[in-house]
């Protein structure tokens, strides 16, 4: 579904991603691991086409076609969606009016209930939300958007223990079940804590460091390795 | 049951349509209705024993005390416009609304002004008395037919809220695109009175000066919001002055302004005259084009120790992060912008009728595409 080849990305003239190769087959869920500042968020933002990232070299293929010159909303319409790490707040735009704008009103109540956000439907998007509430909303937003390639940027950080299961299950369900047109989905999840691995069975993990993919392999094994040896290549 | 009717001529369908856009509903669905057209009170009727609504000239003859209310909050020589209205007032034009002591008025009271003659000159004076412990909701509006784009309207309104009275109001105006309008509003809230008001100033006009002066006695609570829009060719100057005059008075005054090429000046002054008062001023401006101007001038004046006054002001373009965030969900740029602008104006919240909300969205759309 997603294929990234030799991707090098800069902000102004500073390189933030170097020579990234990553293949995410249809139906798979991968996790991205890596220290702060290693380029994980930059990678997801580049896939979606958010500023200020500039592709210096390489290409991004979605369903076999290059997308790097498509504008943001065109990529979103192809079925790429991102749960932000730090979304902006939208004063006066309620969850309900947003859901109406994307045509997901009919599913809002049920999906919100699954993430314990029923009481938030009249609230303005991300305004005054706690860290964990933002994460739950971002997951709900993606569920409503119903993309085929789901990108999650640290969806569980800041989420309390009571809700982390719901977030994990919502991610698992969103990625593992087909979209509303019956097409198979794929997911790429950035995680620090690895908590998410208890709820979603990932197929593969990638360790990022200094803007590069250092190593890829079995998620459980790599996470265990990181916990003892840090973000390094396993022996 | 009709308490008093002044129904010289039925409103035409066209008139009803125009008024509908600014909040009019059939008089049978309202506690009381007044409609002033050009220089005539066309309708003044009440279905509720708790509300009396009369042409001001008649009220002056009927009730002694009305002459003390008229020019009770502002002097007739306050400024040149007010003097002009006062001079014109051999037979004053405008309404007197009286909500009786203790009345809990179930349906809204509605009051409208129409200017139907091109190049018309209209000078009005309204007096509103919400008596002790009374509760009421008010809808007022001003409009012109499509054929009128030039003219001048000057209005004075004086509102008295007696002890413990409560009022929520919405005002919507839709003047002609080349008109000059001057509105002067004065209000006095006695002890424990509560007021919540929304003013919608959206339709284009050449120049609008809106000046208001409010005195808040002890333990009053006043919340006001203004939703202001200026397309190319429109200039709106809004000046408000609020006095927290008695202990425990609270006020919150928020203006949200959008310019698409027009000019908006908002000067808001909050004065803490008494201790134990609390006031907030908010002025937020959003500029949707490179031309035009928004100027926000909030000022705070604490004259007593223990007056807590604060303000927030911001003026800017649409934040590209917010736009991207919405477009990243597949929304096109126009839809994303509209969501941000209507959100900024809080059109979803509060007392704005659905029909008005739709029209506001259309108006912003038209202005952006230069069709205005
Ligand atoms: N808008 C930006 N402007 C300048 N530098 C940025 C910007 N966004 C990210 N960076 C830098 O790019 C590097 C990678 O950041 P990021 O992708 O957010 O890392 P991660 O998500 O792995 O913590 C960091 O050094 C960060 O400071
Ligand atoms: Mg990050």
How is this structure best described in words?
The complex is a heterodimer of chains A (235) and B (372). Helices cover 32% and strands 27% of the residues of chain A. Chain A has 235 residues and is of the alpha/beta class. Chain A has a single domain (2-229), classed as 3-Layer(aba) Sandwich (Rossmann fold). In chain A, the strands form 2 sheets. In chain A, strands 6-7-8-3-9-10 form a 6-stranded mixed beta sheet, with helices on both faces. Chain A has a 4-stranded antiparallel beta sheet with strand order 2-1-4-5, with helices on one face. Chain B has a domain at 1-165. Chain B has helices at residues 13-20, 56-62, 66-69, 80-87, 320-327, 333-344, 354-368; strands at 32-37, 40-46, 51-55, 95-99, 109-114, 120-130, 135-143, 151-161, 166-174, 180-189, 194-201, 207-216, 221-231, 235-244, 250-260, 263-272, 277-287, 293-302, 307-317. In chain B, 53% of the residues are buried. The mean pLDDT of chain B is 92. The interface between A and B is medium-sized, with 24 and 25 residues. Residues 11, 16, 34, 36-42, 52 of chain A line the site of adenosine-5'-diphosphate (ADP). Magnesium ion binds next to helix 1 of chain A.
Number of domains of chain A: 1
Low-confidence stretches of chain B: none
Strand content of chain B: over 45%
Summarize the amount of helix of chain A as a percent range.
Answer: 25-40%
Report, as a whole number of angstroms, the end-to-end distance of chain A: 30 Å
Give the distance, in angstroms, between the N- and C-terminal Cα atoms of chain B.
44 Å
Q: Total number of β-strand segments of chain B?
A: 19
Number of helices of chain B: 7
Q: Which characteristics define this entry?
A:
heterodimer, A: 235 residues, alpha/beta, Rossmann fold, 6-stranded mixed β-sheet, 4-stranded antiparallel β-sheet, 32% helix, B: 372 residues, 10-stranded mixed β-sheet, 7 helices, 19 strands, binds adenosine-5'-diphosphate, binds magnesium ion, ATP binding (chain A), P-loop_NTPase (chain A)
């Amino acid at each position: 579904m997603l294929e990234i080849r030799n991707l090098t990305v800069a902000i102004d003239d500073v390189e933030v991603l170097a020579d990234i190769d990553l293949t995410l087959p249809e139906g798979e869920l991968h996790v991205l691991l890596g220290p702060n500042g290693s380029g994980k968020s930059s990678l997801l933002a580049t896939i979606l086409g958010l500023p200020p990232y500039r592709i210096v070299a390489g290409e991004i293929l979605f369903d076999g076609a290059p997308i790097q010159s498509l504008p943001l909303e065109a990529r979103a319409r192809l079925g790429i969606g991102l749960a932000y790490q730090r979304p902006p707040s939208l004063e006066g735009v309620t969850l309900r009016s947003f859901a109406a704008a994307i045509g997901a009103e009919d599913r809002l109540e049920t999906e919100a209930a699954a993430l314990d956000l029923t009481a938030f439907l009249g609230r303005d998007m991300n305004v005054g939300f706690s860290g964990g509430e933002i994460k739950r909303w971002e997951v709900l937003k993606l569920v409503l958007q119903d993309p085929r390639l789901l990108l999650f940027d640290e969806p569980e950080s800041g989420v309390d223990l009571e809700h982390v299961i719901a977030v994990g299950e919502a991610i698992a369900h969103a990625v593992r079940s087909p979209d509303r047109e019956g097409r198979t989905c794929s997911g790429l999840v950035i995680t620090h804590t690895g908590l998410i691995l208890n709820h979603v069975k990932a197929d593969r993990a990638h360790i990022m460091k200094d803007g590069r993919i250092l190593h890829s392999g079995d998620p459980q094994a790599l996470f265990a390795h990181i916990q003892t040896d840090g973000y390094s290549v396993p022996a | 049951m009709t308490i008093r009717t002044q129904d010289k001529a039925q409103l035409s369908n066209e008139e009803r349509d125009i008024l509908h856009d600014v909040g009019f509903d059939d008089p049978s669905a309202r506690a009381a209705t007044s409609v002033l057209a050009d220089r005539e009170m066309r309708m003044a009727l009440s279905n509720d024993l708790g509300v009396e609504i009369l042409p001001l000239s008649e009220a002056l003859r009927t009730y002694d005390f009305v002459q003390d209310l008229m020019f009770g909050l502002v002097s007739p020589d306050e400024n040149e416009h007010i003097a002009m209205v006062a001079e014109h007032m051999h037979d004053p034009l405008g309404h007197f609304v009286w909500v009786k002591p203790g009345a809990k008025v179930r349906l809204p009271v509605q009051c409208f002004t129409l200017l139907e003659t091109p190049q018309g000159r209209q000078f009005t004076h309204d007096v509103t008395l919400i008596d002790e412990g009374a509760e009421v909701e008010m809808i007022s509006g001003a409009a012109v037919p499509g054929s009128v784009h030039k003219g001048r309207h000057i209005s004075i309104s004086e509102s008295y809220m007696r002890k413990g009275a409560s009022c929520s109001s919405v005002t919507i105006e839709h003047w002609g695109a080349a008109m000059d309008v001057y509105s002067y509003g004065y209000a006095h809230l006695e002890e424990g009175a509560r007021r919540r008001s929304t003013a919608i100033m959206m339709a284009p006009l050449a120049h609008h000066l809106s000046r208001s002066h409010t005195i808040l006695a002890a333990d009053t609570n006043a919340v006001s919001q203004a939703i202001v829009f200026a397309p190319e060719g429109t200039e709106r100057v809004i000046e408000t002055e609020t006095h927290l005059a008695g202990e425990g008075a609270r006020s919150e005054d928020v203006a949200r302004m959008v310019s698409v090429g027009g000019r908006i000046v908002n000067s808001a002054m909050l004065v803490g005259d008494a201790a134990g008062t609390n006031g907030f001023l908010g002025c937020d401006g959003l500029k949707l084009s490179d031309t035009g101007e928004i100027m926000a001038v909030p000022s705070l004046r604490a004259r007593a120790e223990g007056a807590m006054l604060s303000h927030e002001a911001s003026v800017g373009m649409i934040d590209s992060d917010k736009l991207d965030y919405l477009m990243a969900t597949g929304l096109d740029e126009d839809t994303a912008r509209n969501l941000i602008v209507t959100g900024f104006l809080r059109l979803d919240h509060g007392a704005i009728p659905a029909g008005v909300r739709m029209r506001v969205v259309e108006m912003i759309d038209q202005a952006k595409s230069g069709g205005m």
